[in-house]
Specification:
- The chain is mainly α and 196 residues long.
- It has one domain (3-192): Four Helix Bundle (Hemerythrin (Met), subunit A), CATH 1.20.120.
- The protein has helices spanning 3-27, 31-57, 63-86, 92-114, 123-147, 161-181, 185-192.
- Helix 2 runs antiparallel to helix 5, helix 3 runs antiparallel to helix 4 (92-114) and helix 4 (92-114) runs parallel beside helix 6.
- The protein starts with a helix and ends with a helix.
Length: 196
């Protein structure tokens, strides 16, 4: 196992630890635990930033790494979002939107791979990742401000401020699916035809 793959795998290990510290910290109003969760979230993003660069720089790009990286991204990001959902910051439907989008993308990658086609990353996918990452950090920052008793609205139209922060990434996440479907629709239609 090379360095890049270990960095990728570390996200899957760090993610549940983040969930424990964030959920426990939020439920117990513990600023210390939330700061630990924030540090872990930063660590997740750092590994995501450098694993690909290290793989390319050391000429260690592997087929396994190409598949493992988006899976690790999905698992770690969804773990952060489920932590927000369990804490009551975002509703179930918003979490499910993130979840089903990633599940669909995994299916699309499998469909393409079965036809010998590598599903190339698109700008919308990269923008989605940036928006989700930025949104997650903003939510954590809002929680920290709340625990320091900085005046913030407790809710807007019945939703936590974090919901409104993640609404834009959620909408973009949904729209990004179509940016992958449209260029690959011929392949998808071909795979859905009955074998004769």
């Amino acid at each position: 196992m090379n360095v890049a793959t270990m960095l990728t795998g570390s996200r899957i290990v760090i993610a549940p630890v983040f969930a424990y510290f964030f959920i426990t910290g939020y439920q117990n109003n513990s600023i210390g635990l939330i700061w630990v969760a924030a540090a872990l979230a930063i660590l997740i993003e750092i590994t995501d930033l450098f694993d690909g660069r290290i793989a390319r720089g050391r000429n260690e790009v592997t087929d396994f790494g190409k598949v493992f990286d988006p899976v690790a991204d999905s698992v770690s990001r969804l773990t952060i979002f489920i932590s927000f959902m369990v804490s009551g910051i975002i509703p179930l439907w918003m979490y499910l939107l993130f979840f089903y989008r990633d599940a669909f993308m995994q299916l699309l990658r499998i469909i393409c791979a079965s036809s010998g086609v590598v599903l190339a990353a698109r700008k919308s996918g990269k923008a989605k990742a940036v928006l989700q990452g930025a949104g997650a950090f903003c939510v954590i920052f809002v929680v920290i401000l709340e625990l320091y008793n900085i005046p913030l609205p407790e809710s807007i139209l019945g939703y936590h401020l974090g919901f409104w922060i993640l609404l834009i990434p959620a909408i973009f996440t949904l729209l990004s699916v179509f940016d992958y479907i449209i260029p690959n629709r011929t392949l998808i239609e071909k795979m859905m035809r009955t074998n004769r």
